[in-house]
Amino acid sequence: MSDSPFNFKVLSSSEVTPMATPDNLSSVSSAFASFSPSVLDVAAAGLTAPHGTTPLRNSIEQITAPTLDTDLQQENFTAKKRPLFGRSKSDAVQRRDIEDIVLILRRRPGAISELGFERIARNNSLEVFKDDIDGGKRISLGGRIILIDVDLLLPANKVTKVALSLASMLNAQSSAAQARSDALLLADLQAATLDAFARNVERLARHDKLSTNQIDNFQVLDRLHKDALQRIYEYEVDAGIDAENMGHGSPAVDDVGVLGLSIWYWNGRHKISESLPESERKRYRVIVEIGESGRIGGGWGVVQNNTLIGEQVATSDGEINWQEPDYSNLEDQATGFVLKLDPPVPIPYYDAAILDPEGEAEIETIPTFNGSKDTAVFAKRPVYDSRGQSVEYVFSLTSTRVAEMRKIEEVYISHPRQIFSVFEILRQSIRMRALIHSVFKPNFLIPRSAVSTDLPSTLVELVSSLDHRAQTESTPKAKTPPTKISVTLTTPYGHVPRVTVIIPTTDYTAVDGQPRLTSFAIEVQRGGKIGVARLIVNERDDVQGRQEMERMLEHVIDVAEDLGIVAHWVREQVR
User: Fold this and answer.
1) How many CB atoms sit inside 10 A of residue 485's CB?
2) Residues paired with 499 in a beta bridge
3) Is the dihedral of CA 170, 173, 175, 179 positive or negative?
4) What is the superkingdom listed in this entry's lineage (predicted)?
5) 3-state secondary structure of 405
6) Most exposed among 221, 337, 374, 420, judged by the fewest C-beta atoms under 10 Å?
7) Among positive and negative, which fits the CA dihedral 280, 45, 230, 299?
8) Given its phi and psi angles, is residue 86 left (phi above 0), alpha (psi -120 to 50 degrees) or beta?
């Protein structure tokens, strides 16, 4: 036993309650739960009210960015489980390798059939009961708390009805909530395979298995939703805060294919009008689960506590009024909160060290044709103006001092107060990634050989790379070459990620009538807040009203989330 006052142990089989069956569903008593302290204590950032509407509506709605890369569209979680707290790295890696194999088998139970349901039950240590019904069988999967009844027509193997029961919440669960969970599971079983159903059953079975006589994990999550997250959401909405994108998120239960508690924390391009199709938006959420802490000591887990938030949701200074948990009953604790990211999010390694201390997350780099992140990437991107006319640009992306990115799939937290801080880190990386991928996505990338000349970095190079206006007028049938724009990405340790953009512009007040360069740096702060710095217009940094221009540019970037639209807007404004 550790010398730490926070001691944990894994329960033996003799310490668990009996399995739930149709005869004893009402015998499991309810329990309260709360939270323990942790070494992970990420500083919370302030909340900001949403910006106003955008003047770019016509342009934005005509060039909506397609969905992000395939790797971010996949809704299934890969089998790369993180090492659990307190184990040595070698032990953690060995355990993860075994779990990888088990997880793959669990999530491929095959087609809908009687044998498939039995396989799901066996993989999740659930009991199976069978009863004959008209035209088929009722197959029941039972744990100590959960019971899932599936009516299966035979030999067609068609599911006609699904019913989920939780022994400890028979009286607490509303009929609407019951109907919603049953409908979600039934929708899972309208597919050709049992994959989606198996994922939801796996989550239910894990919460069932990790429940004890003192702590019912289903009640813990229900209280977290109703007594904390929903109250915070309502408080933030009443205060004029965009809860989903700038606050503690928008909680949901049994939503979009996930049975249980989720929190939506980011909606891509959310400041564009409602006329933008939902298919052109990218939403992010975390699935709130309870998992094994896997360590002795350290004060990480779900513990008994009567109150999560005080009577007043927020203090006088606007901070959420989280209550401290009761630390007196931690000795037998072996579980804690886990946020499963849907989809996973690549973040810089220094942020991954906060959210994933074991450092076992998958490495990801910016895609290029030759696989080298140090080589410039080129993209050709059309942009539509407010009149619906297409303007073509060629962008080059150069990475300098770019931190290694790691794809995070899950985050362990010790207290719900850390949820907001986790969201702030994720929103920053999601926003930066969205800006880069608005131009440098697979369908826009082109090889270097397709670019006629290098992008200009000096005035001399710019002048030599552009056709003279007189030449263009003498050959009216010649196609105007696309404007070349330089983008530089920097994500240095200890500094805000930055995207520097250099755009050729026209200064009609210049005596020589030659093109000039306009440049600015986009800084993506915690929470995804946009800042603009170092604005230089036509190679002058003493432009009157520069600060006001930077604020306007911040608003344009904030709304558009698209480097193509932003570059076109800047050129038009400077012109």
Assistant:
1) 24
2) 489, 522
3) negative
4) Eukaryota
5) strand
6) 374
7) positive
8) left
Residue with structure tokens 């205060």? 239
Residue 120 token pair = 């799901």
Tokens describing residue 416: 């719900």
Nearest partner of 218 among 274, 168, 149, judged by Cα? 168
Helix (H, G, I), strand (E, B) or coil at 32: coil
Give every CB contact of residue 176 below 8 A, 6+ residues apart in sequence.
none
Query: What tokens appear for 390 in the block?
Result: 């297409």
Are 378 and 441 within 8 A, CB to CB? no
More confident residue, 173 or 406: 406
C-alpha–C-alpha distance, residues 505 and 572, integer Å: 9
| Residues 6 or more apart in contact with residue 90 via CB below 8 angstroms | none
Short-list 268, 343, 283, CA closest to 60: 268
Mean pLDDT of 194-219: 91
The tokens for 30 are 């309810």
Q: Which residues contact 144 (CB under 8 A, 6 or more apart)?
A: 16, 17, 18, 19, 20, 28, 167, 208, 209, 211
pLDDT-derived band at 450, boundaries 50, 70, 90: confident
C-beta of residue 59 within 8 angstroms of C-beta of residue 385: yes
Q: How far apart are CA 120 and CA 278, in angstroms?
A: 34
User: What's the token pair of residue 316?
Assistant: 């006088």
Amino acid at 472: T
What does the alpha-carbon distance between residue 46 and residue 51 come to, in Å, rounded to a whole number?
15
Least confident residue range of 70-84, 328-342, 385-399, 461-475: 70-84
> 69 exposed, middle or buried (CB, 10 Å; 0-12, 13-18, 19+)?
middle
Contact 80, 409 (CB under 8 A): yes
What pLDDT, on a 0 to 100 scale, did the predictor assign at position 20?
44
Q: Do 368 and 438 meet the contact criterion of CB atoms below 8 Å apart?
A: no
Structure-token pair, residue 10: 């894994």
Integer Cα distance of 455 and 2 in angstroms: 61
